[in-house]
């Protein structure tokens, strides 16, 4: 797979995109990302038995959130918000510096993202019934995979805009350009170590894990590649802006 040219560590690439365009791309991508995450969760929970699963970070955060907070109407919001900000601390460690502006940007991302997650979850859970026939199951599998594709595409867009990032995607970007020479697929796999730890903790706390399955495997195998593909084919003139991967 073609790799993007990696900047020298410590250098900050020039920002060529206007602030208005940057916020427009960001707004579009955060809606696509939250919708994609919820589509994987809802399709997973509405197919019985639950073999489908959701995107990897989504499943891990949802499981740990339920294990700690219980399954209530605000679990998704608080799970995504708190675990996201803990990930931003890990990013600071990997960057070898504590950047309050970057962490503040993570928070700015997480607040609307967590709200959209809860909002889309309420909507799709109301309008999408349980899959009771084979055609419905096949349709939900397709929608689940489409959700993963939405996530990978959204990651590509707002990582290139690089205005503010989800902490997990900031982690992915740090690993991708600081440690993996721009390779999106390998970086995505490495960035799954923290949610794996979350899932293990949740399994011990609640005696099992949920929303892991076929869709999770699809995300593991292809989400990074989808992000790399979207870099080249979705808004191809949009390049990585002001990339900072530390010293």
Automatic annotation (TrEMBL):
Keyword Transferase on this protein?
Answer: no
**Entry keyword annotation includes Transmembrane:** yes
Q: Which InterPro entries match?
A: YczE/YyaS-like
Highest taxon above the source species: Bacteria
- Residues that span the membrane, as ranges: 21-42, 76-95, 107-125, 137-158, 179-203, 209-230
User: What are the alphabetically sorted keywords of the record?
Assistant: Membrane, Transmembrane, Transmembrane helix
Q: What is this protein called in UniProt? A: Fructose permease
Q: Which organism is it from?
A: Limosilactobacillus walteri
């Amino acid at each position: 797979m073609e790799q993007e040219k990696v900047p020298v560590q410590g250098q900050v690439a020039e920002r060529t995109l206007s602030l208005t365009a940057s916020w427009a791309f960001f707004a579009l991508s955060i809606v696509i990302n939250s919708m994609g995450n919820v589509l994987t969760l809802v399709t997973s929970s509405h197919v019985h038995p639950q073999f489908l699963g959701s995107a990897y970070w989504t499943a891990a955060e949802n499981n740990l959130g339920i294990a700690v907070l219980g399954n209530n109407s605000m679990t998704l919001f608080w799970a995504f918000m708190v675990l996201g900000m803990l990930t931003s601390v890990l990013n600071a460690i990997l960057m070898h510096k504590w950047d309050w502006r970057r962490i503040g940007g993570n928070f700015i991302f997480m607040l609307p993202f967590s709200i959209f997650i809860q909002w889309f979850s309420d909507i799709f859970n109301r309008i999408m019934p349980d899959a009771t026939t084979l055609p419905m199951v096949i349709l939900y599998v397709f929608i689940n995979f489409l959700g993963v594709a939405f996530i990978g595409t959204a990651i590509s867009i707002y990582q290139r805009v690089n205005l503010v990032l989800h902490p997990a995607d900031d982690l992915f970007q740090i690993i991708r350009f600081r440690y993996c020479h721009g390779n999106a697929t390998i970086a995505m796999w490495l960035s799954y170590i923290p949610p794996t730890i979350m899932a293990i903790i949740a399994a011990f706390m609640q005696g099992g894990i949920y929303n892991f399955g076929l869709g999770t495997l699809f995300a593991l195998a292809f989400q990074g590649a989808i992000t790399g593909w979207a870099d080249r084919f979705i808004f191809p003139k949009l390049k990585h802006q002001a990339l900072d991967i530390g010293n």
